[in-house]
Amino acid sequence: MTITSIDGPAHISRRSRRDRKVILRGLLFATPAALLLLAIYIIPILVLAGFSLTDYRLGALSWRFTGIDNFTRAFRDPVFLRALTNTLIYAALVIPLGIGLALGVALLVQGRRRSRAFWEAAYFLPVTATLVAMATVWQFLLHPSLGPVNAAIRALGFEPVSFLGQPALLIPTMAIIGIWQVLGFNMVLFLAGLTAIPRDLTEAARLDGARHPIDRFLTVTWPMLGPTTMFVVVTTSISAFKVFEQVAVLTKGRQGSETLLYAIYLEGFEYAETGYAAALTLVFLALVLVLSIGQTFGLDRKVHY
């Protein structure tokens, strides 16, 4: 004999009302964050996309719709193409060296006992400094006649080098400054990742035959640093593509040193080409987005969580 409860429908009704209340409460909690995301990111990007399809100039009272003319103009513009090439070269130097050197420094600092705090502070100091002020210091250090770098070069019997005067050396010189800037931050991230690796794994690898430190690094340390490395690669790549201060302070954007952000700054604020600058900004955002997503998905397959 089957017994049917008379409160079945009522119980289901009460449960559905409770579920609706939970969903409503969740939406209420999420609403402030969603509105903030809408106001700070989504609406500005939509406005930017709208400007990129017009010939609007800063301060103009009227403008006209031009479609994708600004985008086609960008890829015919020799200044933009040179800025894009310079940014790619800069990133190609800063990303691998800024990550590889930071990992090497982290491994060395981790092995210190008494002096570890000193080395952590010393390497992290450039991260806390204002890059505009530090770029001025670098300008003095690299001065062809007054700077200590060229003084050391002369002491070795070589001719002084105009690091900021020769177009072929501008991007490599700024890349060195960029590496110096990201080194401390990346080192701290790698130190955190190294600290989280259980010592039992390293000891087990040593007992299994990995007696050389390089063997233990390749079999244990490097795979366990996968999540940290992926984060460091993405953040360093974004920082490299956002290079601006070095160009603004050291070279003032003279030919041979243009980068994407500086080209956007010139078009938008110096030449008042707001529509064209908006199109360049969208190209820049698309480039960084594709690079970040590609790196994340590419590295995620090799990461051991």
CA gyration radius, whole angstroms: 27 Å
Domain unit count: 2
**Distance between the ends:** 54 Å
Strand content: under 5%
Number of helices: 13
CATH superfamily of the largest domain: MetI-like
- The helix-strand sequence is HHHHHHHHHHHHH
> Percent helix among the residues?
over 70%
CATH architecture classification of the largest domain: Orthogonal Bundle
Count of β-strands:
0
Transmembrane segments: 22-51, 88-109, 121-141, 169-197, 217-241, 276-299
Protein name: Carbohydrate ABC transporter permease
Pfam family, one: BPD_transp_1
Membrane topology: Multi-pass membrane protein
Protein model, in words:
With 305 residues, the protein is mainly alpha-helical. It folds into two domains: 7-52; 70-300, MetI-like (MetI-like fold). The protein is built from 13 helices and no strands. The chain has helices at residues 8-52, 69-74, 78-110, 116-128, 131-141, 148-155, 167-195, 199-207, 213-224, 226-241, 245-251, 260-270, 274-300. α7 runs antiparallel to α10 (226-241). The longest helix has 45 residues, at 8-52. The chain is flat.
Key phrases:
2 domains, disordered N terminus, 305 residues, MetI-like fold, 74% helix, single chain, mainly alpha, 13 helices
In short:
The chain is an all-alpha fold and 305 residues long. Helices cover 74% and strands 0% of the residues.
Layout: helices, strands, pairs:
Layout: H1 8-52, H2 69-74, H3 78-110, H4 116-128, H5 131-141, H6 148-155, H7 167-195, H8 199-207, H9 213-224, H10 226-241, H11 245-251, H12 260-270, H13 274-300
